[in-house]
Amino acid sequence: GNWSADGTSGTANGTIQITAGTALNLDAYGDGSRVIIGNGGSKFVSGNEILTNSSATGNITVHAGNVSLIAQDNSSFAQARIGNRGLTTAGGNIDVEATAANATFAITAYGTNLASIGNGIGLNTGSSSGNITVSSAGTLAITAIDSGQARIAGGFTANSNISVTANGTVSLTVSGTPGTYQSGGPAPGQALIGNFGNGLSGLVGGNISITSTHGNITLLSDEDGGFVSIGNLGGATTTTGNVLVSALNGTVSIAANGGVASSFDNGANAMLSYASIAEIGNSTSTGNVTGNIIVNAKQLTIDASGESAVATLGHLGDNAAGSQ
To answer: Global pTM?
Structure first.
């Protein structure tokens, strides 16, 4: 992709098209390493990541037999990404397809690292746009281990639609042991399909559609404080969008087996605790939550076996409304 080595005033734009016959592997193993397909650069200063382009846009198309994104290092924030990233603006449609018969499509993040498909920004006052389409002729697995974040998501977007289709099973899983942030607060893993606003973007929206034609769709939070979600989250005023999950020849399962992750956060000067959550629906801690939820499946199972765990088909929020 296009990007600047320094400065934050320029733009990085252009169409990216990649075709790989057997496989596409994005592997970020070095401490603080970044493997990125997309426009918009970044650098690290005193341990903090700074984006070097104010705006990054352009459609991204990736077709490969099998697709793998892995972020795994020992001590720093490694990233494996497909998407554009600008300081205040990021846009463009993203289409990533694993086309081989019985293909494997894996998005995996270990430790404190990130594996992501979607556009994002560097400032809380900006916004991103563009639809995301992901498909696999075989399976799709989104896996976060320990404090990893693995996701198909647009950041700070009001209207980005996400469509995910697989011939086989679609799985979202968090497992392992949660770490802690530098401030001391707990840092559980996250596995997401949906747009997010971190409670700072006024409106977060877009329709979310997940389909397995011949397999299951599974959500499993198997870590203390782990968060697994299909839906949009974190709008400051409104979190909205319809959520469709379909496995007509299989099972849709929502399970939260982890317990509570707790530790003292020095910045907040308080003990922070997070329950293990597995959810199909939109969620936020502030503002309104709306949108219809439709689940089509041969069988539906919902199970919460961990201490204070939450497994839910429905929206989570103070003002939640919608049809299920």
So the answer is: 0.95
